Amino acid sequence: MTAVPITALKGVGTALSLKLERLGINSLQDLLFHLPMRYQDRTRLYPLGALQPGAEVLVEGELRLADVVNGRRRSLLCRLQDGSGQLTLRFFHFNAAQKNALKTGVRVRAFGEVRPGSAGLEMIHPEYQVLTAGQPAPTPEQALTPVYPMTEGLTQVRLRSLVRQALVRLGPDDLPDLLPESLRRTQALPELLQALRFLHQPPPDVDQQALLAGRHPAQRRLALEELLAHHLSLTRVRQQIQQQGGWMIPLAPQHAAAFLQQLPFALTAAQQRVIAEISEDLQKPVPMLRLVQGDVGSGKTLVAALAAVQVIAAGFQVAVMAPTEILAEQHYHNFSQWCAPLGIDVAWLAGKVKGRQRRQQLEQIASGSAALVVGTHALFQEEVSFARLALVVIDEQHRFGVHQRLSLREKGAEGDRAPHQLIMTATPIPRTLTMSAYADLDCSIIDELPPGRTPVTTLVIPDSRRDEVVQRVRQACSQGRQAYWVCTLIEESEALQCQAAEVTAAYLAEQLSDLRVGLVHGRMKAAEKAAVMAEFKSAHLDLLVATTVIEVGVDVPNASLMIIENPERLGLAQLHQLRGRVGRGSVESFCVLMYHPPLSRQGRERLHVMRETTDGFRIAEKDLQLRGPGEVLGTRQTGMLQFRIADLERDADLLAQVQGLAQAFQSRPDLAAALIERWMGSSTSYAQV
Ligand code: ADP
Ligand code: MG
Questions:
Q1: Is the whole model's pTM more than 0.85, yes or no?
Q2: Closest residue (by CA) to atom 25 of ligand 1?
Q3: Closest ligand 1 atom, CA of 268?
Q4: pLDDT digits over 320-348, tens only?
Q5: Domain containing 360: what range?
Q6: CATH number at residue 590
Q7: Domain end: 103, 131, 159, which one?
Q8: Ligand 1: lining residues by beta carbon, under 6 Å
Q9: Is residue 609 classed as helix, strand or coil in its secondary structure?
Q10: Is 358 found in the same domain as 335?
């Protein structure tokens, strides 16, 4: 199954092949997988009397009038009639030859979109053909006309002709069907080439609705194959890592007991279950690859800490990585507190740790005198080398992106052994996504919150009632509670966000002169941020004005009110994270979503979801529905989960089947490799990690 280079086609030279490359097309095989996004029907003529605005149709008639009019814009107007009705063809750009050809009395066939115009229905710049009197009219197309995703410098006509050539040229030897025949039979799935041919040239009587919705068997067949290829590539990554072998870490019951003893509470049943799952993995001679999902506040940090204690007791090192400095610092603080009584030294490494301090930390990490290392992604820079790293904990994973997760694995691999990996995410991921995006990971779920928490009540209020909201803050704080005021901006610009927070903080300090108002934003120095956070935590501040930097991890149980400005600009997962900062104590907490009217329909729907539920999994499902998997997984930039044909939502029902099929392919590594190559190409680095 060797790829036939695209230059094998007539007329494809360097210039054209570069353009095609921009569409991901390098071979004839790629070209056939570049599917139409929609179709035009040029297979039959529509009577002019039956035209509807918005339809894209083929029409034919006689010109009754052809005139250049000087309206607001000069245009050539041609009135077409066919006995059943009439239609205006309008040209803003035309040359003399066109004007001469389009004369009263000639027959014209035209294709274009029908729109309402000033004098009835019209087509603007239709494709057209003047028919020669006395000669038979050309027969309409036999198949629907494909409309492809495009790139600059290429035309639909050109691409269509290339696809036609490729369809003639490629046979089953070039594009063998890699799905088992028995499966195709039982599922009534068409054979590969047949499916591709069908989708590029569908017969006129095809169910166009099904095609547009991506539900046609020919599309389902390809989606299934693509999902399978994706799944297989992730499983292959997993196998490659696990072939490396890992460190067998025995249970450390005494150390765990000593650790637990210092806590003022008992573990939840869910925490215990997940810890048991992790311990079992750690005892095996293969690297653990486990994802822990747990809603905000479900106590993931402790679960990770217990795993760390077990690994450290066995004489190894543990790295804990967080996505932001604030969160990393908080972890450093917590872990240090927990570890001190056990005599474990903790090192701290972030971008801002510099000079002598940095050298010192690096030294401790390299010598192994620091058994636990907490930091940001600075942990995985070249200069950092670990003495005997056996466990990597990655917190709030989804902010790192799938790609980074995979590249981190190389770090810490030593000789033929790789460290265990524990990945924790606070953004619950819908099951369908877990199965496909994380097929390389085992999954544990902490599906229980520690007892004694009162659910947060969420209010949706327009910003025209700002004064009321300010009073609400005054009231809560006068009762000894604390509050957050979160400023958001649609621009990604951090500078603008921080500026907005500064203005708001000044305004609130003036309005609430009896309260102590603090401000924290991303442009402050880490030490300043930490100082403000510490003041808030120790209740020396009543109100904390913040940008979304407080999104993850920050833990102040006495804070029971959160105002979020312009919540309509944030994704549901992010709102859920923010809201999770309150409701951590025993008093009733409130979250006020103060939106700026008018809300779009989707905006209204999203805020409604936030008001209705505090269940992170339901919110994630809804987020997926409203925004798509790229946003939910944070993979939009990395492009990791961009399927060519499959759509995780639409094709969710295929995923169970994908898992079964992937099992079956285990015995055919050659076929699996061919599938991965076909769909992911050889360029995807993670297929070769
Ligand atoms: P998250 O899962 O969001 O990372 P954390 O690990 O930060 O949650 O825990 C949230 C808060 O709950 C912390 O203050 C932590 O000490 C506390 N906590 C964790 N486990 C329990 C438990 N079993 N009972 C009571 N409180 C707990
Ligand atoms: Mg956490």
A1: no
A2: 450
A3: 23
A4: 998 777 778 888 988 999 999 999 999 99
A5: 247-446
A6: 3.40.50.300
A7: 131
A8: 265, 267-268, 271, 294, 296-302, 426, 450, 555
A9: helix
A10: yes
